[in-house]
From TrEMBL:
GO function term, MF aspect, one: RNA binding
Compartments it resides in: Cytoplasm
Organism: Novipirellula artificiosorum
Protein name, UniProt field: Ribosomal RNA small subunit methyltransferase A
Catalytic activity: adenosine(1518)/adenosine(1519) in 16S rRNA + 4 S-adenosyl-L-methionine = N(6)-dimethyladenosine(1518)/N(6)-dimethyladenosine(1519) in 16S rRNA + 4 S-adenosyl-L-homocysteine + 4 H(+)
Binding-site residues, S-adenosyl-L-methionine: N39, L41, G66, E87, D112, N146
Amino acid sequence: MNQPYPNEREPNETRQTATYLSKRLAQAGLRPVTRFGQNFLIDLNLIDLIARSAELKPNDVVFEVGTGVGSLTAKLADAAGAVLSIEIDANLHQLASEELSGRPNVLLLKGDALRNKNALRDDLMGHIRDAIARIGDDARFALVANLPYNIATPLISNLLHETPYPDVIVVTIQKELADRMVAQPGTKDYGALSVWVQSVCRASIVRVLSPKVFWPRPKVDSAIIRLDAEPEKRAAIPDLKYFHDTVRALFFHRRKFLRSVVISAMKGRLDKAEVDQVLASLGHGETSRTEQLTVTELQQLVEALRQAEAKKATS
Ligand SMILES: C[S@@+](CC[C@H](N)C(=O)[O-])C[C@H]1O[C@@H](n2cnc3c(N)ncnc32)[C@H](O)[C@@H]1O
């Protein structure tokens, strides 16, 4: 294994504490930047737990968003074949580059992981595909990170649209967001995000984390979440973008009945009679509500709407 840090420093295992981090940043004239969601994990056991929960092997290509000072990155690089990590803060990118130098399986990028809310930075998937090609047919793609909370939803949501999409995701996110990802029909947390995530993955919460395990402390609880890709489920959705956009529209007015929600979502595309026909064919009555529909029922509904629209366009 490579020696990750120069010999004169303490070994990695004892260094990741609030004191160490604050000193290390202060030495470089830095302080945590709130707008970049810089809440560093200071419990080494949890850094281990994140890496262990992804069950990394040498055939894994790991994507990390938010290198920070590189503590989790080093753990990931110990276990995986290749690690691609991106950091928006140029100062932290510089620090992490020093910490992780001499690790041939780590590629550090500087900049924003997102081009905009709806898209990843342009070159990211190219880097990931290259690393996968180098590893070969049995390569696995993983997203493992202590995510900056302000980009967790668009990042995960956009990655699930990509080809390939991650075989496994193990990330620290706000607990409230984790609850939404695993939520079941009929609960207050069940919404478009639950349906999108559960349409292409199996989702579970690994551990709830108190603010105490971060420095500086965030205001809310966090959770480590694990998502396992279910490619056969994703393959059953003929048009991912149509599905994603329509599900979002269907959850837009949570208090309304399904019929009026579908009518407004399909405005200008299907008329009321056509919507009624689709709903009747699937057995959804006057009092059905979007939030009571299972993921499978929503997939069937969106696909029936898509086909009705396509039929109308060709008639
Ligand atoms: C919660 S910290 C995690 C840092 C480190 N990996 C750890 O576990 O302690 C999130 C990191 O993501 C970086 N970051 C924030 N927004 C980003 C973005 N849009 N693209 C890339 N990195 C970002 C922050 O600067 C910060 O270093």
